[in-house]
Amino acid sequence: MSMTGDYANRSDLRNQATRRVAFTGQTYGEGAAQQRAQDVAAQQMVARPRPGARQFGRPSERPDEVITAGADFGAGPNARQAGIRPRLIPVNPVVEQLRMLYTLYPNDGLASLLARYTDGDF
């Protein structure tokens, strides 16, 4: 599906005129008013830009900022300084419990289990 709102796989929805719905059993004039309202709504949908959609080759909005700003390498502020929240890595409660047990009761069995599930980094 393209960004212009075309319906490549739905021939019945490609044309604005075919998207209108005509209800029956209305009083005189209500049908025409309904069609006009649908036309206005369709025009508003077509004219409304998508959020975040901007021209690709436009000039930079921050010409004085280095390209690595917000990255944890290179010049400029790092992610924390730029206000970017770190991704939280899910913690495996079983591994955490094994670490705690190994801290309290270090032995070879717990060490081998921890090495298996933490790539040797415990």
Report on the architecture of this protein:
The longest helix is centred in the first third of the chain and has 18 residues, at 30-47. Helix 2 (93-104) packs antiparallel against helix 3. This protein has helices spanning 30-47, 93-104, 108-118. The chain has 3 helices and no strands. Helices cover 34% and strands 0% of the residues. By secondary structure, it is mainly α. It is elongated, with a radius of gyration of 30 Å. The mean pLDDT is 78.
SSE layout:
Blueprint lengths: L29 H18 L45 H12 L3 H11 L4
Portion in beta strands: under 5%
- Give the uncertain stretches in residue-range form: none
The major sheet is characterized as: none
Q: How many distinct helices? A: 3
Helix content: 25-40%
- Rg from Cα: 30 Å
Distance between the termini: 48 Å
Oligomer: single chain
Structural class: mainly alpha
List how many beta strands DSSP finds. 0
Task: Give the topology string: H per helix, E per strand.
Answer: HHH
pLDDT averaged residue by residue: 78
Shape: elongated
